[in-house]
Amino acid sequence: MKETQRGSWIPESLNDSNYSSVLDVFEKACKKYQDKDAYSSFGHSISFSELDKLSDAFACYLQNDTDLEPGDRIAIQLPNILQFPVTLLGAMKAGLIVVNTNPLYSPRELEHQFNDAQVKALVVYEGVASNVEKILDKTTIKYVLTTNLADLHGFVHRQLINNVVKYVKKMIPAFSLPTAIKLRGAMMAHYGKQPEKIARKIDDVAVLQYTGGTTGVSKGVMLTHGNIVSNMLQASEVICKAPEHWKDIVIAPLPLYHIYAFTISLIVMESGGQSVLIANPRDIPGFVKELSKWKFTGFLGLNTLFVALCNHKDFPKADFSQFCMTISGGMALTHDCAELWHKTTGVKVMEGYGLTETSPIVAVNPVNDIEIGTIGFAVKESIVRVIDDSEQDVADGEPGELCVKGPQVMKGYWNHPEETAVSFTKDGFFKTGDIAVQDANGRLTIVDRAKDLIIVSGFNVYPNEVEDIASSHPKVLECAAIGIKHEVSGETVKLFVVASDSSLEVAELRNYCKENLANYKVPKDVEFVDELPKSNVGKVLRRMLRE
């Protein structure tokens, strides 16, 4: 695959349906399954037909009430609520590139992402709009649309939920965005209208998915329509061996702004399945209560969530009579967790592996051949290699860096051609940074990470970013961050600190970090030390800190 071809094609062996874009997947599903429910949230469902109409309305707003052009970037900063698929589909209909944005981001993180992507429009949940207020005038954003949790529900339900959220639970901090408009009003003004058709090519960028790097600087991964559709079809090829009804009602607690959840949701949509969106999966009692309302068939989760649910007294009372598929990703699945979930629900966990740069799925355990502790086999039309430092293949059973080539591999990093270049081998394989072993049958096992990446409940945390923030505190001389094992979240961040002022306290430093980092990146453990272990050239040896 030549450099210019990277991420710009869908193999014929996968594309029986002749999809030309992510939008094409949405539109064909909306026409085929018009009267079926597509998404549910807080007790309200929208059909495929209604999803089509609402997204048309949003696309008409973008085309008629703004000066946005195809290829411009729009950020969507929403939890799992109905507005997410509606605005994403509408933005794509208008030819815009979607920048998926974590609602948990701090103002500093938002400012960097919005400016790096040169975002011109933003759809934001009101519960986090106060963070946007702090940095809006420092960004390129011209249009802001705000929305509350139940804005697409019927009048009575909408008023009830939104008022409880705002006035009873007080989950909407005060904010002032004078130029912002209400998303619901913008859409209703164009409801029933048809947007202008925008031609999209398979190698056009569909989304910018931000991820960290070894430098800790967040970069936009350019995922094309071809990348995402290919990966949807690759994953479907494996998952289709499950009972056909697994996609009927799928519980979706993982955020759609995460590429893993987004790609799986496409698979569900393509087959006419219904996704039950969970806005706050950290509220385990509320989550279990919601589950009690459904005869769900599929579940998309990760290790942290499986453990938390199984440890809740009411979860075993859920109706598992139709349940037949659990998909896990985002973080390593432990044997204990897999066994606990199987014992509680009667369904085995199907674990896969991927990265943002690969849309994300690289390998997965087949439904009928699950081996916990491994990541299974490379998906169709993917080639994997396990290499040494000189980019030579290692023998079966020997550890080396896992590399992948396939139609799901990113086009590159947005505005970072140098970083893109060093992320690939000389012959065009993407270097994952993970150390793997492959057996004679092709089954893969991740044994270590070449990068210092920390994974907290499925979220990537890069030590350099944490260190940059902590070391900017005036009382910190230097510091180093590592991940330490945690039975619930997989890992947490631990920070070793050499203080320049002995009056520095843990609470003071953690509060400082909270102001500048998403909560999952904030060190849970801070240890003051006299000095950090270093190499002869002064490089901090995180390996020794782990030991």
Tags for this entry?
547 residues; disordered N terminus; nine-stranded mixed sheet; GMP Synthetase, Chain A, domain 3; alpha/beta; eight-stranded mixed sheet; single chain; 26 strands; 16 helices
Question: Level of helix content?
Answer: 25-40%
Strand order of the largest sheet: 2-1-11-10-12-13-14-15-16
Structural Rg: 23 Å
Average pLDDT metric: 93
**Any idea of the CATH topology of the domain at 47-200?**
Rossmann fold
Q: Spans of 5+ residues with little confidence (pLDDT < 50)?
A: 1-5
- Tell me the distance between the termini: 42 Å
The second-level CATH architecture of the domain at 47-200 is 3-Layer(aba) Sandwich
Largest sheet: 9 strands, mixed
Strand content: 15-25%
Shape: globular
CATH class of the domain at 47-200: Alpha Beta
- Please tally the helical runs, counting DSSP H or I stretches of 4 or more residues: 16
Structural class: alpha/beta
- Count of individual beta strands: 26
Explain this structure.
The chain has about 550 residues and is an alpha/beta fold. Among the domains are: about 150 residues, Rossmann fold (3-Layer(aba) Sandwich), CATH 3.40.50.980; about 80 residues, Luciferase, domain 3 (Roll); about 90 residues, GMP Synthetase, Chain A, domain 3, CATH 3.30.300.30. It has 16 helices and 26 strands. Strands 2-1-11-10-12-13-14-15-16 form a nine-stranded mixed sheet. An eight-stranded mixed sheet has the order 7-6-5-3-4-8-9-19. Strands 17-18-20-21 form a four-stranded antiparallel sheet, with no helix packed on it. Strand 8 and strand 9 form a beta hairpin.
